[in-house]
Amino acid sequence: MRIDAILMVLGVAVMAAGTFFVLETTVETPGPQLKSVTPEAPPVVEESEA
Fold it and tell me: What is the DSSP letter of 45?
């Protein structure tokens, strides 16, 4: 490979790494929205119905 082609490839790689680093540090990714595991009003079972 010629030296100018190697420099071009390295330049693109450095640019991609820099862009990735900047986006990872500046853009916030929201966490998963989890629902409650236990229901707020659990069903009540009468002993006579069971």
Answer: -
